[in-house]
Amino acid sequence: MNTYSSTIFNQLLDFVPKDKFNRFVGQHAADRYVKSLTTWNQFVALLFAQATGKESLREIETGFSAHQNVWYHLGVHSVARSTLADANSRRDWRIFHDLFGEILSRCRDVTPARNKFAFDNPLYALDATVISLCLSVFDWAKYRTTKGALKLHTLLNVRTAIPEIVVATDGKTSDIAAGRKIDLSVLEKGSIVAIDRGYVDYGWWRELDEQGLFFVSRTKSTTAITYLGQHVSPDTASGILKDDRVFIGEHYGYEKYPKAVRMVTYHDVESGETYSYLTNNFELSASDIALIYKNRWQVELFFKWIKQHLKIKTFLGTSKNAVLTQIWVAMIYYLLLAYIKFQTKYAKSLLELTRIFKETLLVRRHLVDILSITSRTVARLTMRDGPQMGLF
Predict the structure, then answer these.
(1) CA–CA distance from 257 to each of 201, 218, 293 (Å)?
(2) What radius of gyration do the chain's Cα atoms show?
(3) Which pTM was predicted?
(4) b/e map of 321-339 (b: 16 or more CB within 10 Å)?
(5) Does the pLDDT of residue 207 top 60, yes or no?
(6) How many CA atoms lie within 13 A of 361 on its CB side?
């Protein structure tokens, strides 16, 4: 008979550095005068909602009421939706932002890099995604005349699929305005950042160059190009049509970025399209430069994944603080899943792991035991463990 007394959810929470969490709570005096729902209880409730796909505060309250014996062992005595709504609106979202950063540092230590590239440079993709909001409900998030939105600006480590920097802004903030404020100097020198045409800013590129970072971007149709000559002979067999040294911009542009850059022209046989890339890296092959920009698409896949499988499109509160709190808890859940996947060397996809966690969250089994099951075989486990399981 299985005598393991800790639920999967309890073991998931064991990965959260509670000492650091308590420090962040203390820094913001978040539990001062609290009588019932502590910040930890609030976090547990919101993480529970992320893992099980809860759509409303009422659903969270019902889920807790149905399994009070489980919550007692987690130190959670009750979760009334009115109290949770108040906590989401009042408690500073930066507590969860800081917790995200702490868990991220731990993920970096265990997350292996995928060796699909011929070069060793750390590779990142920087981009933003828009989360639409109803302006009549979220009146603080004005984006256009009749629309509301916020943006998630994300620096994704392409080799590990881990979001290393996430910045939330209002929907009106342009990509380059947010990019300028993100401190990329913390990256290892020699790192490569793949960016789209929304980040074309010669002055910012100069800053990246001075920080010892490489950029790879697309040219705009309006980009003024002065050809200086061929860098190396192009490898037409691999789709490289040109590999040149150029100056970018007209006279004013020269002042912002006075150095020559490299322009690689690549023809994609599959799509039939021809692309031109600008970079300050003159060492990697032209094929590598094309591959780097192609892998910028990984950040788009990341955005698609979190919108489909995390609760960041429908919100449990309407205030800015409540929305940001929910977003940061969602990002924390993503990191915890990634951390467990890499620590346990789980071979299947992160999506498969998400599905398994959703259906086994309250099972009293060892975490390692559930990693061998699939979304198809999980039903056998839930039937065997009966009501202790608690399907959502």
Answers:
(1) 9, 16, 21
(2) 24
(3) 0.89
(4) bbbbbbbbbbbbbbbbbbb
(5) yes
(6) 26
